[in-house]
Amino acid sequence: MTLNGKQHQAETAMLSRQVDGPGGAAPQGRTAEILQEHIVEVVSDSGEGAQRCGQSLAAIAARSGMGIWTVEIIPAEIQPPHRSVAGASGNRVRMAAHRVTNVGDEADLVVAFNEQVLLSRLHAGEVKPGATIILENMWTHDPNPEIARAYAKVRDEVRAAGYRLFEVPMEAECQKSVPDPRRGKNMFVLGMLCAIYSLDAELARAQVRFVFAKKDQKIVDANIELLDAGRAWAEANLDLRYQIPAPPVTEPQVVMNGNAALALGVVASGMEVCAMYPITPATSASHYLSSVFEKVGCVVHQAEDEIAAATFAIGASYAGKCAVTITSGPGLSLKQEAIGLAVMAEIPLVVIDVQRGGPSTGLPTKVEQGDMMAAIFGGHGDAPKVVMAASSIEDCFYSVITARKIAETFNMVVVILSDAALATAQQPYPRPKFNADWLAPPVNQSAVPEDARPYDWDERTGIATRFIPGQPNGMHCLTGLAHDRDSHVAYDPEINEEGLLNRSRKLAALQTTLRLAPVFGDEEGELLLIGWGSTRGAIEEAVKRLRADGHRVSSLHLKFLQPMASGIDEVMRRFDKVMTIENNWNDPKDDPLIGGDNRRYSHLAMLLRSRWLVDVDCWGKARGQPLKPAAIVDAALAKLGKA
Amino acid sequence: MTASMSQCLMQMVQTDYAISDYQSEIAPRWCSGCGDTAILTAMQRLCRDEQLPPEKTVSVSGIGCASRLPHYMNAYGFHGIHGRALPIAEGIKIRRPDLHVFVTMGDGDCCSIGAAHWLHAIRYNMNMTVLLHDNNVYGLTKKQASPTSPHGMKSNTTPFGATLNPLNPLTVTLGVSNVSFVAQAVDWIPDLLYQILRQAYHHKGLSFIRILQRCPNFMEHRFDDWVRDPSKMRILTHGDGLRLAPDLSRVYKNQETHDPLNMERALALAALEGEIPVGILYRNPNVPCYDELRAGERPNTPALVETVLNEEFDKVGIWPDGAAAQVGE
C-alpha cells in the first residue's frame, strides 16, 4: 500500500495519457492544468436536474478511468420552494487520478443554478476557500427586483470572500437550443464540465443517450445539442481547463451506489424473498431489487408495516427460503421483537439496516452510524445475533452473500449495517465474477431420522439441524417460548439456560472463524484509529496524510461488530493511544457537566472498552454528514497533542 | 411383489392417516370446558378427512390461549409472537404453495395488536385458512377487555364496565377489498364448525372463520342465551353449503337460504343484533390470490442468476478499453 502521497502522485503522473481527439484538445491554445483530484458540486432547485448532471459527470469520469465518489445533495422535501437555501438539490463528485474511497473535504468547484442554493453549500461549510464558482446569472435581469437584489448581494459577497466567480448566462445560452431551458440546463452544465475537465466528447454524448434511452429521439437530440453547446461555450468563454490524468482501466469495473450493490448482493446470495416497508434511505435498495428480482423468479414483498416485513421474512425463512428484510433505524426498532423470535426459534434471517440520523424520525436523508448498539443489543432478553458493517460500495455487495451464508449455517439473525452515505454514494469496483457457491442450497425435503430432535444442539458449536416444513418425521411446533430439544415449551431453569448457552455458543463458534483485517499503516505506533462501516475510506485517507507528515498513526477497520474477531486486543496494545472514529454521538469532554463518571462514548468505543479494558477514546460527529478526512486528521493530531 | 404394487402399497400406507396421526404427544392444557378443544378436534378431523400429510401441514399462531393450538397438532407448527401470525403465514406460503397453511388467532391477536395484518391479509387473499377464536376476552393474561368484549363488560382493566362498543370482526372483514371467504361458527355446534372449516379449506384464497368460543373461566355465561335458545341461532344454508343433519335441523329451525355471493345480505347478517348467524356469509372463488400473482415465473437457477446479474453489471459496466458495454449511470 502506498502511504506516501507524493510518491503516489508521481506514479499516477507517469501513467497519465495525453489528452487528444476532438473533445479532448485544450481550447485556443490553453493548456490544461494537471490535477490529482477535484471535488465538484452541481446544485439547483429540486427538479432542475443537477443530480442527473452530477451523476452523469461521475459516470463519464469513471469511464475515463478516474476514481470517483459521488454523494447526493438531497433536500428533505419532495418539492421544496424554489430558490431556497433549504431546497438545494444536486450532487457532489470527487474525481481523482487514483481510487477514491470517500467524499473528501470541501468542494473545489461549484456550479449553482441560483445564488440561494449556492448559499446553502457555503453555509454548510462545504466549499473550499477560494474555490471556483460557476453561477447562473439570469437572476440579474429578473423582473422581480427583490430577486435581482438578492442575487447581486450574494454575488458581491462571494466575490469579496475571495471565491473565483464565473457568472454564466446558462438560461440565455440554452434558449438558443431549446424553448424551455429549465429542462435541459443540466445537460448544458454537463457539457461545460466536460470541457473544464477535458472529458471525451463522444463518451459524454453516449452518456446522454443512455440517460434518455427511454425517451423520444427528439429529446435525445435536444439534450445532445445542449451538451455540445455547453462544451462550446465553456471552451470559448471560460478560462478553466483541467485534466485529471487517470491510468487506463485494467479490469472490468461496475459503478453503482451502495443500495444498488446491496440489492445485487441479495440476488447473488440466492435469497428468494425480500420483505420490506418503505423507509428512507433504505428504500432505493428495494426499488432496484424490485426491478431485478422477479427476473430470477423471486419476490419483493412490500408489507403493510415494518413488523409484517420482518415476520413475513421469518415465515419465508422458516419454510426454507432464507429471506431478507431491508430497513433503516426506525424500522429496526419496530422489528426488534420479531428479530428476538428468529433468535429464539433459530430461524435464519438477514436484516439490512441502512442507517440514518436518529433517534425517532431524526434525519431521514442523512447519514449517522447510530444503530450499532440497537443492532447488537436492541431486543429484550439475551438475543445473540451477528452484526456486520459494510465499509464500501463493493463491500455492500459481498456482505449480503456472506450474511446469507452465516444466517443459514448457524440458523442465526445477521444484521448488515450500511448507511445513508453508502446508500447514495457511487463508486466503481471490480466487476464481480459470479460464483455458484454464493447461492443457497435447495430446500431440504428429505425425511428426518426417527430419533432426530429439532433442537439437538451440537455440544461444540451449539448448532442444531433445522427441520423444514415438508420434511417427513420432522414435525414439531416451533415457539418463541423457552423450549427444550424437542421444541416443547419448557419453563424449567436448566432447560432455559441450556437454550441460552447454545444460542450464545453459536456466536462463539462463528467468532473462531473470523479473521481480523490487517492494520492500515504500521503494526505499532503512537495512535491507533479504529472504525467500522462507511467511514473506512475517510479514516484511511486521513491516516495516509498523517503518515505522510511523519505521524505514527495507523487504523484498524472492523467488519464484524458482533462477534468481533480475535486479535483486536493485541493490536490495540501495540499503540500508545487508541481512539475510535465514528459517525455518531459522543459527549464532548470539555462540557462542564461531563466527566469520567458520566461521559457517554460512541458505540464501538463502549464495546472495546468493556471487552478489553483498554482506555479507548472516541472521536465522532453526528452532523448528518459523512466524516471528512481533514476533520479526522485534526482529531488525530489533537489526540496526539499536536493540534 | 412388483415395483408398482409396492409403490401403490406405500402410497396407501402413507396416506392412511387417522385422527391420532394429527394429535401431538402433548395433551391440550386448555381449561376444562374451553371452546378451543372443539376447534382443535375439528381441525384434526379435517386433516384426517382430507388426508393431509402432517409434514405438509403448517399451523401458525400468535400468542394467547388459542395460539397454543399448533403445539397440540402433529404437524409443523409455528407458535409466533402476539399479533403476527398472519404475516408469518404469508411468508411461509409465498414460496411454498405445496404447504397447507392454517392460522389460529385469538380476538386480541387478530383484532387488536395484529389488526393491521388482519386487514392486509384479507386484501392479499393468499391461500390459507384463518381461524379467529373469539371468546370476547383476554384469557392468558387473566381477563382484560378485548376489542370484541361487549359494552359494559367488567374486567380487570374495565372494573366499571367496558366503555366502548365492540368491534365486529365480520363486518370489518367483509369491508376489506379482495375479501373472498367469510364465515361464522360456534364451538357448541361442532358438526357445523367442522362443515364450515371444510368449506373454508376447499376455498381458493384466504378463508376467514370467526368462531365464537366459550371461555369457562372469564366469560362463563357470555353465550348462554344463544346456547340455551337455538331459535337465536340463524343457520345459513345454500345449495352447496352447510347440510344440517335431521336432528340438528329439528333443533335449529331458524334457517335462512343465503346466496354467499350476496354481499349486501352478508353485511346485514354480519350486523344482526340478538341473533348469531352461523354459516358462510360470503364466498367468492374468483378473487385473485397474492401468492399466485407473485409466483415466480422462472425457477431461481444458478444459470439464471448469473445471466441476470451480468445483465445488471453490463448496464453499469466499465471495460478495460475505456468504453462501456452500455453506458450507465
Characterization of the model:
The complex is a heterodimer of chains A (643) and B (329). In chain A, strand 10 (273-276), helix 10 and strand 11 (299-302) form a beta-alpha-beta unit. In chain A, helix 7 runs antiparallel to helix 8. In chain A, the strands form five sheets. A seven-stranded mixed sheet of chain A has the order 11-10-12-13-15-14-20, with helices on both faces. Helix content of chain A is 37%, strand content 19%. Chain A has four domains: 5-243, Pyruvate-ferredoxin Oxidoreductase, domain 3 (3-Layer(aba) Sandwich); 254-433, Thiamin diphosphate (ThDP)-binding fold, Pyr/PP domains (Rossmann fold, 3-Layer(aba) Sandwich); 443-513, no CATH class; 525-639, Rossmann fold (3-Layer(aba) Sandwich), CATH 3.40.50. Chain A is of the alpha/beta class and 643 residues long. In chain B, strand 9 (233-237), helix 10 and strand 10 form a beta-alpha-beta unit. Chain B has two domains: 17-293, Rossmann fold, CATH 3.40.50; 298-329, no CATH class. Chain B is α/β, with parallel strands linked by helices and 329 residues long. In chain B, the strands form two sheets. A nine-stranded mixed sheet of chain B has the order 2-1-3-4-8-7-11-9-10, with helices on both faces. Chain B has a two-stranded antiparallel sheet with strand order 5-6. The radius of gyration of chain B is 23 Å and the shape is globular. Chains A and B meet through helix 2, helix 7, strand 9, helix 9 and helix 11 of A and strand 1, strand 2, helix 4, helix 6 and helix 13 of B. Chain B: Residues 63-211 form the Thiamine pyrophosphate enzyme TPP-binding domain. Chain B: It comes from Tropicimonas sediminicola. Chain B: InterPro entries: 2-oxoacid:Fd_oxidoreductase, PFO_beta_C, THDP-binding, TPP_enzyme_TPP-bd. Chain B: This is 2-oxoglutarate ferredoxin oxidoreductase subunit beta.
